Amino acid sequence: MAQAIQISLQVRFGDIDAYHHVNNVVYLQYLEDARVQLMHTPLQFEDGTTSSFDGLIGDEFFTLVGRNEIEYVAPIAFRTEPIFVNTWVTNIGGSSYDFGYTVTEADTSVVYAQAATSMVLVSRETGRPVRLTPHQREALETWRGDPVLFRRRATMPGAAVEPSTPTAGAH
User: 143 and 89 in contact (C-beta within 8 Å)?
Assistant: First the structure.
C-alpha cells in the first residue's frame, strides 16, 4: 500500500458496549474521523499550488457516502492507548472514489478491522453526481493504494475466498 495516512484515535469509554468492547457502529465513526482528517491534509500540486482535497471541493459541491463495508477481525477493549486508522484511496471513478482502511495498533501488528467506503462528489444545486476535476484526481492519487482484501467475498464473481474464521465485534 502506498501513501496510507495513519491517524491515531482515542477509544472513549462511551464507545464500549455491553460486551466490553468497541461497538460495531463506533467503527464507522472512527473511519469518518480518519477520512475527514485525510481530506483536510494539505497537498502540494505539480503546478505549485497548495490545497487539501476538501478545499478543492468548494462551496458548490459536497461528498456523500455511497457505501461502507467493514470486516471485524478482533475486538478492541477499553484502553488508554490510542488505536490507529490507516486510510488510503483504492479506486477513482468518474464522480466517485473509494477509501480503504485498517484499524490497527501503531505498528499494524494487530488488525482489529478492515473496511472500505465509496464516496460520491455531488452538486449542491442539482443533487446529482459531478465529475472529479483533474486537481481532485491528482489529490486522490497522492493516497492511492491497493484494494482492501476482505476475507469473505463468496458472492463476488471471481473473488477468492479464504478459509473463514469467526470475527468479533459484529453485533
Answer: yes
